[in-house]
């Protein structure tokens, strides 16, 4: 297995320890992450060193098969070399993408987007509310969440109707962004993050919908519904954000391994 890893992946076999867990050394991460570590990146992460450590751990676990499937049973050990080769490559590409997605130039220019709205649109006010939701999300999480997280919440304003249900995997218009957008939506299985999103959305008269069939829509809150206030507990904030980032990474990596069918779209 080690020969496969050494010969097929764009980094070496050396490892280091992060809090007693095996990890890939910083100098073997994609260049964007080495730049984040060295303080040379165009990012504004509140704790860049923690993000780099997560990247080191993620790349090691994916490229060395450090997962329960192999750690808790010998039933699939013959598959481990193939797993390490395939998922090591996917982990590398995932980190390449998100190393760039944290660049501050990737984030939406909310004022510019708002200025580009047409006052003549019948649903101008509602489209403006979508932008306000994204702006409030940015006020809450800032640059600690990737740019694609904010772009997916702005996506409804580019559609014919903001409540349009769009199957991301099968949408020609969204194909370029589908993988990262889907990862950000599935990352909200970290429920406190989703509660924060829904709380902010509800204050503007909306709630978010995303099905596991990769449908995505903004649905209006009915007249009998009310907004609700949710706040992430300060002592858990770092944990939930790290959980979200980690989940987004593996969702992005596994994206093309998910069995999909148009039957779910209906």
Which descriptors apply to this entry?
single chain, 266 residues, mainly alpha, two-stranded antiparallel ribbon, 48% helix, globular, disordered N terminus
Task: Write a concise synopsis of the structure shown.
The protein is mostly helical.
Structure description:
The strands form 2 sheets. A 3-stranded antiparallel sheet has the order 3-5-4. A two-stranded antiparallel sheet has the order 1-2. The radius of gyration is 20 Å and the shape is globular. The protein is 48% helix and 7% strand. The chain is built from 11 helices and 5 strands; from the N terminus they run αββαααααααβααββα. The chain has 2 domains: 2-104, no CATH class; 107-264, no CATH class. It has helices at residues 2-8, 31-38, 48-63, 68-71, 80-101, 110-115, 124-141, 147-154, 178-186, 191-202, 237-254, and strands at 16-18, 21-23, 166-167, 206-210, 215-220. By secondary structure, the chain is mostly helical. Mean pLDDT is 88; it is low at 1-6.
Shape: globular
Radius of gyration: 20 Å
Order of helices and strands: HEEHHHHHHHEHHEEH
Total number of helices:
11
The rounded distance between the terminal residues' Cα atoms is 43 Å
| Main sheet record | 3 strands, antiparallel
Helix content: 40-55%
Annotation, overall tally of beta strands: 5
Average pLDDT: 88
**Order of neighbouring strands in the sheet with most strands:** 3-5-4
Q: How many domains is the backbone divided into?
A: 2
Determine the strand fraction and express it as a percent band.
5-15%
Q: Spans with pLDDT under 50 lasting ≥5 residues?
A: 1-6
Give the helix/strand class.
mainly alpha
């Amino acid at each position: 297995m080690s020969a496969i890893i050494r010969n097929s992946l764009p980094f070496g076999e050396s490892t280091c320890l992060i809090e007693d867990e095996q990890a890939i050394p910083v100098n073997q991460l994609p260049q964007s992450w080495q730049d984040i570590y060295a303080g040379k990146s165009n990012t504004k992460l509140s704790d860049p060193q923690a993000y780099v450590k997560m990247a080191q751990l993620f790349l090691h676990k994916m490229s060395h098969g450090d997962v329960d499937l192999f750690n808790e049973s010998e039933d699939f050990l013959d598959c481990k070399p193939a797993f390490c080769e395939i998922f090591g490559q996917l982990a590398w590409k995932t980190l390449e993408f998100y190393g760039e997605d944290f660049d501050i130039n990737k984030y939406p220019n909310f004022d510019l987007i708002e200025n580009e709205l047409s006052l003549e649109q019948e649903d101008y006010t509602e489209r403006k509310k979508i932008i306000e939701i994204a702006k409030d999300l940015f006020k809450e999480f800032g640059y600690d969440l990737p740019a694609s997280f904010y772009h997916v919440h702005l996506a409804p304003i580019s559609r014919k109707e903001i409540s349009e249900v769009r199957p991301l995997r099968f949408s020609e218009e969204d194909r370029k962004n589908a993988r990262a957008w889907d990862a950000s939506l599935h990352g909200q299985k970290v429920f406190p993050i989703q509660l924060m999103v829904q709380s902010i959305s509800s204050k503007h008269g909306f709630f978010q919908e995303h099905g596991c069939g990769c449908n995505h829509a903004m649905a209006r809150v009915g007249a009998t519904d009310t907004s609700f206030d949710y706040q992430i507990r300060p002592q858990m904030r770092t944990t939930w954000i790290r959980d979200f980032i980690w989940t987004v990474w593996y969702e992005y990596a596994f994206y093309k391994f998910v069995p999909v069918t148009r039957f779910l779209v209906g």
